[in-house]
Amino acid sequence: MFTGIVQGIATVKALNDRPGLRSVSLSLPPRFTDGLQIGASVSVDGVCLTVTSVGDGNADFDVVLQSQSLTTLGVLRQGDRVNVERAARDGAEVGGHPLSGHIDFSASLTQIRTPPNNRVWRVNVAAPWMRYLFAKGYVAVNGASLTLAEVHREADGSGWFEVWLIPETLRNTTFGEKKAGAHLNVEIDRYTQVFVDSIREAIHKEFSDLAHSMKFTDAASIRRDSLQHSSGASLPTGGPGKMAMKKKAKKSGSGKLKSRGTGQPEGPHTKSPKKKK
Hints:
Elements: E1 8-18, E2 21-27, E3 41-44, E4 47-55, E5 58-64, H1 65-70, E6 81-86, E7 105-113, E8 119-125, E9 138-141, E10 144-153, E11 159-165, H2 167-172, E12 183-188, H3 190-231, H4 239-251
Antiparallel strand pairs: 1-2, 1-6, 2-5, 3-4, 3-6, 4-5, 7-8, 7-12, 8-11, 9-10, 9-12, 10-11
């Protein structure tokens, strides 16, 4: 793990390219190699590399094909300068934010503004990486932990972010040398990525379950309509109680009783005729 606090600037001393593999020899800052051993991890412009050889203030690293194609290490030239940081020790102060050294994408530096004693970068980001970037959140650029000052999202998922660089950052990194159009190695904050992806998966599952339920309901409705059409009759809508009442009324005729001997219907206001004495 790295802290995102760049410890110095190294210079590319030599390059050795072989099929699918590039070996990089770096001239490191003073005392940077103290205690550094073969197999140790070093962040080189944000990319976690393993030491293959060390001595006399120099260290060698191998860069595999995937790292060459994904990061700026594939286009390094002799004499280029890079940010370096050694792996954090247990209990070390994390001055930036935890970094893995696993670069997510390469971005383009599109604009540089220079307010007094400051420098502002605007960096273009391709989709879908903007979903993990939020104002006041973290991002690592070439191994340096930076705070996102502003973010902007486009409808297609792309966008840009801005970061402000203080004089100390410019002094201790290669950022003061960068020009508009430069390519940068970007690592998003892993905690933000896990949170965003977890929420997206939960929402996707909820909507999938809802869509499945609606599809099942629609299928049942189609089957019912098909049965009605094939039988030529509609299903009863009044319920069994209402149907039974209709049948009973049909069986009893009009439903009114005739009074005995009068031929008139007997109702609540009908009086029975009196017998003659």
